[in-house]
Amino acid sequence: MYFLAFLVFGLIVGVIARLLVPGREGGGWITSIAIGIAGSYLGGFLGRQLGLRGDASPGGFVLSVLGAIVLLVAYHAIAGRRASA
Prior knowledge:
85 residues, mainly alpha
């Protein structure tokens, strides 16, 4: 049950991040889940490094979305550099 909740949370975070970051990424809902899960880990890590509590709280959700946004912006920077080269 925990694994299913983990996937749903990753999907929600990934979809919100993709809606907030302009641009087009390839992939569908599996990519959104991967972005959301990786963003959650990144947001949680950054939150702990900054001394913010982010586990299982509304702040944790916000940090997860911010982490996913950081990943999408990095993806766009890398993909844009490849397309122009």
